[in-house]
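FIELD: query
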Amino acid sequence: MRTGIRRPRRRLLGIAAVFITAVTLVGATAGGAPSKGLVTITVDTLPIANALPMDLGIKKGFFQAQGIDITKRTLQSGNDIVLALANHNGEIGYFGWVPMMIASTQGIAISAVAASEVEGTSAADNWQDILVKGDSSIRTPSDLAGKTIAVNALKGVGEVMIKAALQKVGVNPGSIRLLAMPFPTMRTALRNGQVDAIWTPEPFQSQALNLDGARIVMAPGPVLGKFWPIGGYGALTSWARANPALARKFRLAINRSLTYAQGHPAEIRDLLPAGTQNVRLPIWSPLIDRAKLRQLARYALNFGVISKMPNLTQLVPRNITGGKTLQGSISKTAIKLLLDGRPLKALPEGEYTFVVTDRSKTGSFSLRGPGVARRTTVKGVGRFTWTLSLSPGRYTYSSSGKPAFKKTFRVV
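FIELD: result
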């Protein structure tokens, strides 16, 4: 059953997906005839690494277990996906929160079906930053004043995040000039001096850093907040309301895919073409931080990308689990657990994603409490992610091995 908008508005030229048109990053696809007894859902997606958890979930049978067969249609931008959904060419789309907000405020009612990924905590672990040439005189964000920065489109997510981040660090956002160009052409434009800086995601970020000697001068997402929300899966509100059971089954399957992908990054990298496996991957989480999403909408409004605040209750309905992302770390000298960059003392009962960076080869990060017993490896190092439901009680995070650390927080 497909109801809703019959004549979608075409005033969506300002929509710019947070993602890229990188043909080289097309991963595994769903193919073949649907299995008997499965319901087919057409998902409009983007050809980037951030979208690969769905491909991995298809491969692992997570969607089949929910009675779903996925037909994947790869489009080139969030604008394309909005218009495809509005024209009933696909049931669900994978795209950025800003394109969803623009659509929602321009007469195309969109509702999220599931969350997807967030940005990192600093320029060192983020996958989408502002880069300059290695010999550029631009050393700090304040040096960007009066400069030209390449973005993939005007009045899109890049413009929102760059201007908001510059304003937050005390730089007049009106002092910069934004030049729209496709992500694949940005490295050349930077090298030949057409622009002073580029805002680019993976794989172009790693290529510019490793092949061109470029430098990161600013990470807009982490400046705005730790684990800043970027994209998700959405559908026409009319479709979601007419098919609640099917939307729920898709959400269960994609949430399982996101969690599995986060815990098995090597399997995601195996889906990438040769030469791109070492790109920085995002942090996938089935949770959405509604407070950060509301702030993103305010930034979009302040900088003229949308003309009014979107209906966030409609955009992110109650069936999308809300929750915070916590930043944990362990090293030779300290163990930490932070919420929005601040030491953790207490949390309300609910869902949380723990992103733990283990830098110790002799100790591990251990988390224990009511119904929870998780830890990283003692000898291994790397990033570990757990999405957990916390119940009231006392939780302990400590080191297993040497040196010994132990701290607690309460869930109320």
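FIELD: remark
The longest helix spans residues 244-263.
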